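Hi F.,

I've been meaning to write this up properly since the lab meeting, where we talked about keeping a consistent format for the predictions we share between groups. The idea is simple: the sequence comes first, exactly as it goes in, then the structure tokens exactly as they come out, then a line or two of notes. No screenshots and no reformatting. I'm using this chain as the first example so we have something concrete to point to.
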Amino acid sequence: MNHSPFNHSLKLDKKRTLCNVSNSILKHYGVETFHTTYKPLDKILKNTNKEKICLILFDALGKAIIDRYQEYIPFIFNHVYKEFKSVFPPTTVAATTSLTTGRYPIENGYLGWTMYFKNYDKLINVFPSNNKLNSNEFIKPAVQYDLLKTKYIWDLINEHDNSNTAANIMSFDVNDSKDPIINLKNYFNKTNDLLKNHKFIYSYCTEPDHTMHLTGVKSFNTKDMIILLNNELEKLVNNNPDTLFILVADHGMIDVNQEYTHAHDDFCNSLNNQYFAIEPRFATFKVKDKPAFVKAYNEHYAKLFLLKSKEEILENHTFGYGKPNQYALDSMGDYFLIAKNISMLNDGYAPQDLVANHAGCTKQETQLYMSLFNN
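Output, unedited:
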């Protein structure tokens, strides 16, 4: 399989990313847009006669994953409409938030799983709002609802209409059972229930991301989970003929090897501290000795990761376009190491048990499909 990066410049596409997709949704409902819309979706939305829209995101079900399992998931594969792209980094925190806000990561401040916040002088895992270096320490109020508080597309639609006709559902909010299969079916049932009284639903599912992280892209567990998603989606679509369903992912996934930064004293000695922010495959470092850092990179990591400075990242609009969020700027170190094959960094506080991961710049992680149903 080809693991080469699709774009070494890391300059984000302005016309066909998740951010453009959400702006198409806003435009359809008469809400002022933030950025360019995704023209192929505009065409569908303009011509649809459906009363309702359900935007579904299956976490990590990127183009390469759908292609791999296409013979087992005919309902999803046979309804593929267009190929488009994630944002940078292609990871859940950045990508889902770009989709759900209509703004790029540089604007909304959601760069990745772990960010540095000056207010606390800590590396904080954004969604759980806990200290990276002490996972039992939770930051309150949670950064997602405080420092990074934002409005989502369903909020904007409701404000525009002065109504409550748009809503969202997250699969982790309906995990009432210890059986993951029961939880997944419960999630689809809850989505179906919401569609009875709403004209727009954003429906997010943590699978197959969760399964692939633990068992890998090629595992039987992953195959079974993706088949289950395909079959449950088909039932949901057939139960709601008055609804246009738009299926996307936030990113893809790739099986990985771990590279431990502490194995290289010269690398660690060049840093202000030993720990990185953002993602293990899109890591940023604050550096005290730049020549030593670059030398250590060339010796240990040049074949595995791209090296980009903060200035290059900003000049290339890697995190997107618009006014930079101060929390995003604060979290950016002097340099970035971005995976270009199958490696992820581990500073001792990255997950030890990941078989597969994302956030690098390979095609497997960045390229997505959009599938349409009832269109």
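Notes:
DSSP finds 15 helices and 18 strands in the chain.
The first strand starts at residue 52 and ends at 58.

If this format works for you, I'll send the rest the same way.

G.
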